[in-house]
C-alpha cells in the first residue's frame, strides 16, 4: 500500500493551519457577531488554536501508526471503533489540559464548562474527520486488495486451465503421430490405419477424461497399453511395459500416460536397446520403475509432474515421490481410495 497522505510532511505542515483557523473562526461565530471578525480575527487565540490543531493532528497521526502495527483485534470494524474511541479520549484530554493551562496561566481565570465543551466539540470533530480519512483509506485498500486477489486467482486458474488444455491436446505428440501416419501410409496402409485407430482411441480417452476427476486404474491401463504401442511407432526408444497384479484402485486420468511419455522423451533415442518399465503395487503406492538412460540436456524430474502432483493433492495427503539410483528411477503414485 502506498504511504498514507496524512504522513506527508507538507500535509502535516499546512493542514493544522487551516483546521486551527477554522476552529478559531467557529468559536468567534459562536461568541460574537460576524461584524466582529475584522477586529478580532488575528489575535492570540488564533495562534493557540493553530498550535492546538498541530498537537491534536500529530497525536491522531501517532495513534494511526500504533493501530496500524497492531495485530489484534482481527476484525476491521472492531479495530476501527477502538481506534476512533482512543483518538477521542486522547483528544478530549489534550484539549482540556491545553485550554485549562492557557486560561489559568495566560488569561488568569479558570475556564467554565461551556467553554471547554465548545473547544472539545470542535476539536473532536476534526479528530473524527482525521480518523475517518484513515479508516476510509484502509477500507478502500481492503476492497481493492480483495478485488486484486480475485483477479490474480482468476488469472492463475486461467493459466492452469490453459496448461491443462495444452497438456491434454499435446501438440508435439499430435504432430509426431500425424507425421508417422503420413510415412506409414506410403509403406503399409494397414499399419497406418492401425496407428490411426490407436492414436484416436488414446485422444478420445484423454479428452473425455477431462470431465472426470479420477478413473479406475483398469481403465487407465487399457489405454496405457495402447498409448505405449503408439509411442513405440514414433522415433523414440522402445518401451517394454510389464504390469504386475494391481488391486482395484483409482488414479488421476492420464497420469500414467503422462509419466510414460515423459520417460521416452527424456531417454536417449536408440534402436539397440529398449526401456524396461515395471508397474506394480507396493503398500499404498503404485510404483513405476524403469532403467533410465537420459539425455544430457533433458532429465525427467518431479518438477515435470507438478500438474499431476497438484491433482493428486486434492484426493490424498500422501505425496508423489521420485528418486533414482545409478540404473533405476522410481516413481511412486499414491493410491486413491474411495470411501
UniProtKB/TrEMBL annotation:
- Please give the GO cellular component terms listed in this UniProt entry: membrane
Q: Which residues form the Signal transduction histidine kinase internal region domain?
A: 164-230
Which keywords does the record carry?
A: Kinase, Membrane, Transferase, Transmembrane, Transmembrane helix
Question: What are the recorded GO MF terms, alphabetically?
Answer: phosphorelay sensor kinase activity
Which InterPro entries does the record associate with it?
Sig_transdc_His_kin_internal (IPR010559)
Transmembrane intervals: 12-34, 46-68, 80-104, 116-135
Descriptive protein name: Histidine kinase
Q: What species does this protein belong to?
A: Flagellimonas meridianipacifica
